[in-house]
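Problem: given the chain below (235 residues), write out its structure.
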Amino acid sequence: MELFSDFTFEPRPHAPSLPTAPLQSEAQAAATCDQPLPAAVERRLVEQAVLIRELAPWEKVRENHPIGLRDPETGQLGIISILGRGAEMYAVHYFHPPYAVPFWQHATGSSEERPSSITITSCEFFTKDKADAADLARMGKYRKISRKRNGVPALRSYRPGQVSDRLYRAEGEALMLVFDLIALYMEKTPPKRHRELYQWEKEAGATHMIPVLRLKSGGSAQYLADWEICSEPLA
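Solution.
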């Protein structure tokens, strides 16, 4: 299933990697866009990506089932999209707020308005003989290069007018948290619970309910035990 038929996400041109900290909005990310990705963050991203490949969240989550991520600093909703149910590709995309929800709604046909700006950080997996040299080199610095089908992670950032394999620090920190929370979601939501978190209304213009990962009151974003999963409107 191709969700975003009118959106060209080119996974090939080169970009950097990502760490775990409270999420940053597009405005905050722009303010720190000149900060390079630390080696410790890059290492952690590669390790997390290998774990995500083993967890195979696409076996539970369908392409049209977004997972919300409530930014603990701003309260804005980001969107995690997991692709791979059809086994054609395996990927995790994080749509950064504040334009994540309107972009998703436009891409899935529930809204005619397309936001003028969107930032997406992603990890797509490629088989070794189809992976870029930069992605192979990154993985090889920290792990043995996988020979399994779609085993090499390719980290990318789509910013307005640009696709890059060079991730900034803010993007890396966001993706680290996304990876950790996907693992938490897989652990805490057996299939029945996962299905119950979605409520798709059939009437045009109706509000859908989706699972949302959010920080508990008084919790710290650094501790996974302080995050909870609930159902919230996709709005």
